[in-house]
Amino acid sequence: MTDFSTIDITEAKKLLSQKKITATELTEFFIKQIEEKKGLNCFITKTFDIALKMAKESDEKIQKGSNLGILEGIPIGMKDLFCTDGVKTTAGSKMLENFVPFYESTVSQNLWKNGAIMLGKTNMDEFAMGSANTTSFFGNVLNPIRSDNQKDLVPGGSSGGSAAAVASGQCFAATGSDTGGSIRQPASFCGLVGLKPTYGRCSRFGMVAFASSLDQAGPITKTVSDSALMLQSMCSYDDKDSTSSKKLIPNFSDYKKFDLKGKKIGLPNEYIIEGLNEEIKKKFDQCINIFKDYGAELIDITLPHTNYALPTYYIIAPAEASANLARYDGVRYGLRENSENLDDLYQTTRASGFGDEVKRRLIIGTYVLSAGYYDAYYLKALKVRQLISNDFKNAFKKCDLILTPTTPNVAFPIGEKQNDPLEMYLNDVLTVPASLAGLPAISVSAGNNNTNLPIGMQIIGRPFEEISVLAAGSVIELSKV
Amino acid sequence: MSIDNSIVRKVGKLAKIKIKESEENKLLDELNNILGWVDELKKVDTEGVEPMLSVFNESMNMREDKSDSKFSNNLITKNSPEKKAGFFVVPKVVE
Amino acid sequence: MSFFIEGDTGKWEVVLGLEVHAQIKSNSKLFSTASTEWGSDPNTQVELVDCGMPGALPVINEFCVDQAILTGLSINAEINEKSIFDRKNYFYPDLPQGYQISQFEFPIVGNGFLMIQTEEGEKRIGITRLHLEQDAGKSIHDQDINNTLIDLNRSGCALMEIVSEPDLRSPEEAALYVKKLRSILRCIGSCDGNMEKGNLRADVNVSVRKPHSEMGTRCEIKNVNSIKFIQQAIEYEARRQVEIIESGKKIIQETRLFDPNKGETRSMRGKEESHDYRYFPDPDLPPLMISKAKIEELKRSLPELPDEKKSRFISEYSLTNYDAEVLTDDQYVSNFFEEVAKNRDSKLVVSWISVELFSYLKKNSIELSESKITPKKIAGLLDYIISGKISNRQAKELFEPYLKSNLEAKDFIEKMGVEQVSDEGEIEGLINRVLQENPKMVEDYKNGKDKLFGFFVGQVMKESKGKANPQVVNKILKDKLA
Q1: First vs last C-alpha separation in chain C
Q2: Mean pLDDT in residue range C350-355
């Protein structure tokens, strides 16, 4: 069997259209890969029968050469946050261990319409709350990349299963969702490309909600070119989501024609934080030079409220989550701990169905909304969010794109940062601001550190300017730092 | 602002999450740590700043008033831990 | 008359405010496409939002927004060009999302008012706000010994919550207010106003105070579902509060339930104590923006409202304020009236509709709209009165059997043989006979005993078995005795 783990979607599409390979061959290859790499724990549910059936359909279409989707015959992983009709959807939680939706999320529906093949549902932090994929009820995911000192590393989170699956060649690409960095951070930890589109670009319908004003679906891929193809297949205006954008959807692959010459790239000094890993800082400086070589103009900008982004996020996201997760009450679906008393049923079901991190955030979220604390916490956070958003608006008057590192550190060993939630939260410090402002942002691997662990760079763009973000990402990708 | 055990218990009740006595102190410490840290926001001058409800600034899509009940009660109650004759079932609620 | 409760320490005034929940008469729910039809099998009209499925999202129904605006315009209220949907958080098995989507700080409709017709004249009742919200599902407690059953067919149906100022001062005023609001809602078609089906319900805020003193502590009586119960609940609750205060104790602000079987209110305390609704803006829904153009367009589409109709009835049909109010309370009734009053004496029509017909309906406990009585049927009978073929008195006697029969006026009157005799020759014959049989009386009359005139009329009517037209009898008799 040919090794397809070294090629990307763009390459595979070519082979499929030349009929050198079939979708069934590809699918069988990845099924074998998934079986072999079970130890990484990337998938919660495997859907091989469905995959083979979809592959057969794709092959028939390819044979006829008509109605081909953008991703016709391309096997992918689906984050277990997207509801899939007839296929268990757990959101990484004991609460939904046996939940089988009878409806399909818009994002997954769009992918199937575009010919993608579902290999399975990827592991994730419980309800997307986590930065190391250690909060999943189904066990942590291992990063396929090992450091020279051979410790097992986290893949990042919350889309850790997706990232590890793509990085280990178990699928060409996978979907992720990003609330405060859940696509970009694992992409960075696994040496991949992770794109969080503008808020409103991808429909949230059928995506298990964490924090509705922040949640946004996006792809995790090996290359920038694949990222454009995946996003093209995922996004659409959706009248089932009241926050879905009606803005024109461009051909994202046009990023290849986007010229960075003369474009202004902003460097926010606030992102060079205390505790930023030295090697990451060095890579960041190298990237600056690459853009200079491309004829871009690098300018210093200021995003003065950056320091407050993380605390703001850790008020707003838990507050929204406290309401979004109230539906898990053991009545209509999901886990129920039986009791003769309804209140007891609620309390024990929720205590047993949710893991510690989720409970921590639900308690925080409930507290910041409760009588007497709303103004001091929640309302204050909404105001600071406005200031953070304004910072970006002002910055984008001066520059076209913003370049920052994706994370303050590289992937860390499993078990680390587990005792102090705050230490874990700091992982998101560089990704959260763009989430709060709803801006498109990509993380692209800028090469490895001296123990061979990948370092990610983040590019943030203006709303709905994913093309320029992809273009800048491809510059880093091509330079092979 | 720091909180005490009684607030942890009260919020646990509001969130309908049973907190075991043995977990209470650990949770209290963690919450106080987090709250102490988000207290940073107090330093920000937000005088005259409008709260930002959403980054989405397009007008809300409105639906035509057409009814379409797609799902049978079999499907709606399919995942339910307890059901009876098309109803969801919970322990007796005393009004 | 002002309403006061007589306590041991004197008079107490009752202060009332109402929160009316009106279900919007839409095909589909406020945020989902599920049908709102009443009486279907459990959980068959449930979309993903209505049962709080993971990943479900709300999408607003434009018709419901329009109905809220129309209602706002009809209660003389400001329409807010920007309003916000909030989540009201609490756990209950018929609240599938764990929160109700409602409007808290920024409702769609602001300050307004409506006028009620009390015995002392018109009174203006302020309205604080109107907002849109989701209804909850239904918890059924009496079908299973150990369990409560949950049906979500009603979950997510659109409600308008209309909150009055504490301007009402008696159970009657509260009843008038609800009736007026209901007539407006029915007139514009935003709500059926059917309290039995629960598509109009009220929460009643009750407090008592000594006249001209500070407002007392209030209690809220939840979910009262008939006008009669609203009145009973207020009377009971106001007396309860007076007794508590006069015994030296304090009213505790709380939520209470009205038990129609016992005619009592009782505390819901305990269930309510942990409620802290944690309202916050729903991140799934952008602000609701309403353009001035839309408001203007809806304003133009408004039908003639009950108050406008009332003024018109007063001037067009020379009705009293009271009659006009009664006839414009219900659109079906006002249309019925106008149909009958066409080219007929409106005073006669009013008395026959608002007195005879209404008491018939009341006696038989049916609504006019539910009865088979048509304007034509009433008009047919009235035409016999107007032409003098039957007397008013005869018509009153025949009214009930006539309404219960399937016959038109002509056939019914023929069948009953009650047609009035107006033929002068025939009547003259009868009169001659009566006068001949009573010569003594005739003489007494002629000598000044005027009162005997009535005796002759009576005798003539008796002879005619009540069929003689009294006006004709009077006329001929006067001539004969002159």
Answers
A1: 51
A2: 91
**A9-255 to CATH, choices 3.90.1300.10, 3.10.180.10, 3.90.380.10, 3.40.50.300:** 3.90.1300.10
CATH class of C424-481: mainly alpha
**What is the predicted ipTM?**
0.96
8 Å CB contact between A473 and A222: no
Spell out the domain ranges in chain A: 9-255
Is residue C97 less than 8 Å (CB to CB) from chain A?
yes
Choose the closest CB to B38 out of A98, A315, A420. Answer: A315
pLDDT at B95: 59
Q: How far is CA C188 from CA A337, C182, C299, C302, in A?
A: 49, 10, 11, 7
Question: Chains that contact A by 3+ CB pairs under 8 Å?
Answer: B, C
Structure tokens at C214: 């500070």
C128-174 per-position pLDDT tens digit: 999 999 999 999 999 998 999 999 999 999 999 999 999 999 999 99
Residue pair C121/C322 in contact by the 8 Å Cβ criterion: no
- Residues in A touching C96 (Cβ below 8 Å): 327, 331-332
Whether residue A89 contacts residue A99, with contact meaning beta carbons closer than 8 Å, is answered with yes
Phi, then psi, of A111 in degrees rounded to 5: -65, -45
Say whether the peptide bond before residue C274 is cis (omega within 30 degrees of 0): no
Distances (CA, A) of C161 to C176, C290, C304: 18, 19, 23
A184 close to A131: Cβ distance less than 8 angstroms: no
Cβ separation C54–A101 shorter than 8 A = yes
A79 carries an active-site annotation = yes
Listed residue (A207, A250, A181) closest to A107, CA to CA: A207
DSSP-derived letter for residue C153 is: S
Half-sphere exposure of A401 (CA within 13 A, CB side): 32
**Predicted confidence (pLDDT) per residue in A28-42, tens digit:** 999 999 999 999 999
